[in-house]
Amino acid sequence: MGPVAAGRVVLGPGMSLTPSPELVASTRGEPLEITGVVYDRRCRPLAGSRIELWQANASGAYGPPQGTGELRCCYLQGAVLTDASGRYVVDTIKPGNYIGPRTQSGHIHFWVSHPGEQSLSIELNFSGNPSVPADAGPVVPLRAASAGLQATFDIVL
To answer: Burial code of 16-31, b = ≥16 C-beta within 10 A, e = fewer?
Structure first.
């Protein structure tokens, strides 16, 4: 993963994906902005928390197929550090239901860490998708916004 942005990140092609018109097209979809705050267990904001994210594109694909038919991550990925108030903003697109051996609801992988705190790995799901399992968590609502969709996801380490 390349340099880590402070406060805000736009998810985009990662790993060794070579820019191409097909790659750019694969990152198109319904715009989604996710905002939140990372807290410690005493509900204090954690500045400098690192959040790594990856997700499928709007069609449900994580990356282009390789010669063996396996997928390579990721059409959409990135990392962000929380600001002085523990806040972060992610600009991405609404992920499609995952294409694979079994259908999974569109979700975004979060890996969150901070020095001195236990790290957290979690899949963020969105309400209104019938593919979200009853025991999925967390599930947040999507709201209409001027530039697409918006969701809020606060995290406690």
So the answer is: ebeeeeeeeebbebee
**Alpha carbon of 155 to those of 45, 107, 122: distances in Å?**
10, 16, 10
The CB-based long-range contact list for 59-62 (8 Å cut-off, 24+ gap) reads 59/26, 59/96, 59/99, 60/95, 60/96, 60/97, 60/98, 60/99, 60/106, 61/26, 61/96, 61/99, 62/98
CA–CA separation, 104 and 133 (whole Å):
8
Return the number of other C-beta atoms located less than 10 Å from residue 91's C-beta.
16
Of the candidates 96, 100, 98, 102, the residue with the CA atom closest to the CA atom of residue 69: 100
To which residue do tokens 């550090």 refer?
81
pLDDT band, residue 28 (cuts 50/70/90) = confident
CATH assignment of 5-149, among 2.60.130.10, 2.60.40.1220, 3.40.50.1000, 2.60.15.10: 2.60.130.10
Average pLDDT, the chain: 86
